[in-house]
Amino acid sequence: MKFMVCSPSEAACSLSDEPVLRVLEAALNDCLAREWLA
């Protein structure tokens, strides 16, 4: 991703070309992946 998501509102404000839900889902998946790989 092009930016770090600190909160849903920040993610929404950072968007311009992707649906909010898709980005939030990607951020959540990335966070979960880091937890599993840690």
From TrEMBL:
Domain of life per record: Eukaryota
Name of the protein in question: Uncharacterized protein
Taxonomic lineage of the native organism: Eukaryota, Viridiplantae, Streptophyta, Embryophyta, Tracheophyta
